[in-house]
Backbone:
């Protein structure tokens, strides 16, 4: 009954346009190959190159470097996959091509709540900082949606982006005010401030992994819902969807993914913005394809950005949050220009 309509919505294109898409299997295989290459580069490339035999030989003098880089790589993969999936979910849920946890204030909300927790409650470990990160991420997302809904036309893509940018600026200012008045919190928080996956151990990833797993399961399960919502709210309800409940579940997935990623690696913007657009360019708009491939491409982007950051200004490192912005800002400006034409 609903399958033909929903399949056409997921396809989102004419037969001729669909035929121009790269097959999903080929795209996935290419993505896995690129991911494997990114992991290899992340382990072998840095301020000091590591020979391949050091990877397999525990007695090699550079094997400890391999161990540290592997931990850094696993964290980058997890954070990148979480941000890529969160961005795709947010764009599908809001039907806003400019949606991204960094742009719409979700990351800033998580960061602000973490700083308050550090300053007021004395929180320090990742396990302690995860709950305030979730609360801050959820609060910022709700506030942006409410503020953007005011006035004529409701929450348009441009209004959401502008409101998110304004809230991000406000939260950044309040965060800075707290840090300037509390040197102890500043000392703790500077570890996260610019967005980095260096200097963390596997225990950090272990603490956040359950939340990332739950968020990923909820997010991937929402693929058909997002395809249905693309048809419009009324038609989605007519097709039997309980849209209010479904939206809450997808929003919960976004909060878990973005909040945990921020707690683990700090605020890394633009990954969730860029990745879904890249994926849709290859496989089309169907979320059953877009969501898992966004995880894959997001993981690749963060790991590659981290690797490039290690070698671009030797012997210093450029943090992954900065490298992601170098890629993301031009793409964001292009998307804003296109969205402005559509309004």
Residues:
């Amino acid at each position: 009954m609903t399958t033909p309509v929903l399949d056409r919505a997921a396809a989102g294109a004419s037969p001729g346009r669909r035929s121009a898409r790269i097959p999903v299997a080929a795209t996935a295989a290419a993505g896995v190959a690129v991911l494997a290459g990114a992991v290899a580069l992340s382990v072998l490339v840095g301020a000091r190159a590591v020979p391949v035999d050091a990877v397999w030989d525990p007695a090699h003098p550079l094997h400890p470097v391999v161990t540290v880089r592997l931990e850094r790589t696993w964290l980058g993969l997890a954070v990148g996959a979480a941000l890529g999936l969160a961005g795709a979910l947010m764009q599908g849920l809001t039907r806003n091509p400019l949606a991204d946890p960094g742009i719409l204030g979700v990351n800033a909300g998580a960061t602000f709540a973490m700083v308050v927790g550090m300053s007021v409650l004395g929180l320090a470990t990742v396990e302690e900082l995860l709950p305030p990160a979730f609360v801050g991420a959820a609060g910022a997302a709700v506030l942006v949606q409410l503020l953007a809904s005011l006035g004529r036309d409701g929450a348009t893509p441009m209004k959401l982006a502008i409101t998110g940018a304004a809230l991000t600026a406000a939260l950044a200012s309040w965060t800075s005010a707290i840090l300037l008045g509390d040197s102890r919190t500043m000392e703790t928080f500077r570890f996260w401030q610019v967005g980095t996956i260096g200097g963390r151990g596997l225990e950090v990833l272990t603490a956040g992994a359950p939340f990332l797993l739950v968020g990923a399961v909820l997010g991937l399960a929402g693929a058909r819902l997002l395809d249905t919502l693309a048809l419009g709210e009324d038609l989605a309800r007519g097709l039997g969807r309980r849209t209010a409940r479904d939206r809450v579940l997808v929003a919960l997935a976004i909060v878990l993914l973005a909040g945990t990623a921020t707690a683990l690696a700090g605020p890394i913007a633009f990954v969730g913005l860029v990745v879904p657009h890249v994926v849709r360019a290859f496989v089309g708009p169907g979320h059953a394809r877009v969501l898992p491939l966004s995880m894959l491409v997001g993981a690749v982007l963060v790991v590659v950005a981290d690797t490039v950051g290690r070698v671009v200004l030797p012997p210093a490192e450029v943090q992954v949050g900065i490298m992601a912005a170098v890629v993301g800002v031009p793409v964001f400006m292009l998307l804003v220009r296109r969205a402005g034409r559509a309004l």
Summary: Residues 63-94 form the longest helix (32 residues). The chain has one domain: 35-40+61-342. The two ends are 34 Å apart (CA to CA).
